[in-house]
């Protein structure tokens, strides 16, 4: 799978990315307020810090990666109306729940974007997946706020495909009938769909435009449960990247 963000060297962090159709600072402030509302211990604080630098310098502020509770969350500005979201879990970002919540709180669209190359050989490597989830403000009478979901993923050795919600006009719906399951939603299709939504999410220069800061949310205090901490290299080795 060629063309991944930063040539895949920040996987597993960037295997999955959230996107919010709002500025990075507003997204971070809303997220921090939400997280503070979940705090039950006086020994637990949440800091919100502006971060500057290149994309890789900004991502490095997530380190070390956490084997327990997430300790750091990052909102990154882009050359568009969207902000990106990643976190410091050692197994990679899990954007689905945060994007669902933030779509409701801000009454905006949010995305979950997954692009993992299929590199499995024997018992080593990664199960491939290409996914796009679109969330919106919660609809009356509906418990979930999915607008659209499309995926092709290798689930333990077998490729599966599925989609739900109303297709966008730009979708290549005829491809969903491809004989080979993994061809029904490809990485190239994902990139094309994202371009129609205003995102060049696999291009490094799409992120951190001049004059804008990323925003780091950091949990600190004795009540946090970080578990084991990992360097990026250790996390990659454990995932056989």
Overall description:
The structure is a single chain. It is built from five helices and eleven strands; from the N terminus they run βαβαβββαββββαββα. With 241 residues, it is of the alpha+beta class. The strands form two sheets. Strands 2-10-4-5-1-6-7-8-9 form a nine-stranded antiparallel sheet. Strands 3-11 form a two-stranded antiparallel ribbon. The longest helix is centred in the N-terminal third of the chain and has 15 residues, at 24-38. The two termini are 13 Å apart. The model has no long low-confidence stretch (mean pLDDT 92).
Essential attributes:
nine-stranded antiparallel sheet
Count of DSSP strands: 11
Percentage of β-strand residues: 25-35%
Strand order of the largest sheet: 2-10-4-5-1-6-7-8-9
Task: List the helices and strands in order.
Answer: EHEHEEEHEEEEHEEH
Oligomer category: single chain
Radius of gyration: 18 Å
Report the uncertain regions. Answer: none
Kindly report the average pLDDT value.
92
Tell me about the biggest sheet?
9 strands, antiparallel
General form: globular
Relative helix content:
10-25%
Number of helices: 5
Distance between the termini: 13 Å
Q: What structural class do helix, strand and pairing data support?
A: alpha+beta
């Amino acid at each position: 799978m060629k063309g991944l963000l930063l040539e895949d060297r920040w996987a597993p962090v960037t295997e999955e990315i959230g996107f919010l159709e709002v500025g990075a600072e507003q997204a971070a402030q809303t997220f921090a307020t939400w997280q503070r509302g979940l705090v039950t211990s006086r020994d637990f604080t949440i800091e919100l810090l502006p971060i500057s630098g290149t994309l890789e310098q900004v991502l490095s502020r997530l380190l070390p990666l956490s084997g327990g509770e997430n300790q750091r969350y990052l909102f990154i500005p882009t050359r568009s109306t969207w902000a990106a979201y990643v976190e410091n879990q050692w197994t990679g970002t899990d954007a689905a729940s945060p994007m669902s919540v933030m779509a409701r709180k801000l009454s905006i669209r949010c995305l979950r974007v997954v692009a993992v190359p299929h590199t499995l050989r024997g018992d080593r490597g990664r199960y491939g997946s290409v996914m796009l989830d679109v969330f919106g403000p919660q609809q009356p009478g509906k418990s979930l706020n999915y607008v659209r979901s499309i995926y092709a993923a290798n689930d333990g050795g077998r490729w599966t495909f599925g989609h739900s919600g109303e297709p966008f006009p730009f979708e290549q719906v005829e491809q969903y009938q491809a004989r080979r399951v993994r061809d029904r939603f490809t990485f190239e299709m994902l990139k094309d769909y994202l371009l129609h939504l205003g995102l060049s999410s696999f291009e490094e220069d799409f992120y951190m435009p001049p004059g804008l800061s990323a925003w780091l949310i950091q949990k600190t205090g004795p009540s946090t449960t970080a578990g084991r901490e990992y360097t990026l290299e250790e996390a990659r080795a454990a995932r056989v990247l």
